[in-house]
Design a protein that fits this description.
Region (Disordered): 1-26
Organism: Pseudonocardia parietis
Number of strands: 0
Domain RNA polymerase sigma-70 region: 53-120, 132-194, 216-264
Radius of gyration: 38 Å
Strand content: under 5%
Shape: elongated
Keywords: DNA-binding, Sigma factor, Transcription, Transcription regulation
Helix content: 55-70%
Order of helices and strands: HHHHHHHHHHHH
Structural class: mainly alpha
Protein name: RNA polymerase sigma-B factor
Number of helices: 12
């Protein structure tokens, strides 16, 4: 009896994704996805598979934009969002240069938008951020052309905008990086946080003091004298009574009445 030799099973080699045409084999699937209706039951699985197929591209692009202030996970998440958006709006008639010619600009654009919107220390309107980017580029160009730093009017002319917009954008650029309050000044000086002023607790009482002075000046002479001796002269009720020639009880009643009237006139 002859023994049949069993051939080993061949392993499927993974598709190489190198070079500008490494993803061309996925173009038919992209066309099928674009032709499907949103409620098509086969659209979801096909879309998920394409996302997984293009994830190596997302990782490679993300690594090119790593910064010291943004985590690799955040940048890759932004790139993945750009991939998903690009797949959902893929138009085979408008796409040129194969899948990568359409997907790479979309993913890169989403990464750049993320970096632009999350690199500022303060929240700045998007139009000012975009103008700030233009100012940085125009500054380099004009500096080389003029041999000096450009003036705001020259920047406005170069960018075809107003001087007021340039000045506002220059002010916004100062918010790109936050200064630490704990870094010491030069030559061991105090930190910025130690040099900043604090709230003055007497500011709120300043207006009240002026109004109180006017109210006290309007009091009858004897009541004004009793009030000043008690609260500004630090005299006891007994001492005031002896000086004015009335009883201590009378001084106490006068003080209570005057203080209550002032409190009511000053709004409690």
């Amino acid at each position: 009896m002859r023994t049949q030799t069993r051939m080993p099973a061949q392993r499927t080699q993974p598709t190489r994704r190198d070079g500008p045409h490494g993803y061309d084999d996925l173009e038919p699937d992209l066309r099928r996805l674009a032709a499907m209706q949103p409620h098509d039951p086969g659209r979801g699985p096909l879309r998920d598979r394409l996302i997984c197929e293009f994830l190596p591209l997302v990782r490679n692009l993300s690594r090119r934009y790593l910064t010291a202030t943004h985590s690799a996970e955040d940048i890759q998440q932004a790139a993945t969002l750009g991939l998903i958006k690009a797949l959902d709006r893929y138009n085979p008639d408008a796409a040129t240069g194969g899948p990568l010619g359409y997907l790479i600009p979309s993913v890169r654009g989403e990464i750049l938008r993320y970096l632009r919107d999350h690199s500022w220390a303060l929240r700045v309107p998007r139009d000012l951020k975009e103008l700030g980017v233009g100012i940085n580029r125009a500054t380099i160009t004009l500096t080389q052309r003029l041999g000096r730093a450009p003036r705001p009017s020259e920047l406005a002319e170069e960018l075809d905008t107003t001087i007021a917009d340039v000045v506002e954008a220059l002010g916004a650029l100062e918010s790109y990086r936050a200064a630490s309050l704990d870094i010491p000044g030069p030559d061991g000086e105090l930190t910025l946080g130690e040099r900043l002023g604090a709230d003055d607790p007497d500011l709120e009482a300043a207006t009240m003091r002026d109004e109180l002075r006017e109210r006290i000046d309007a009091l009858p002479p004897r009541e004004r004298r009793i009030l000043l001796l008690r609260f500004f002269g630090d005299r006891t009720q007994s001492e005031i009574a002896a000086e004015i020639g009335v009883s201590q009880m009378h001084v106490s009643r006068l003080l209570s009445r005057v203080v209550a009237r002032l409190r009511e006139e000053l709004g409690g």
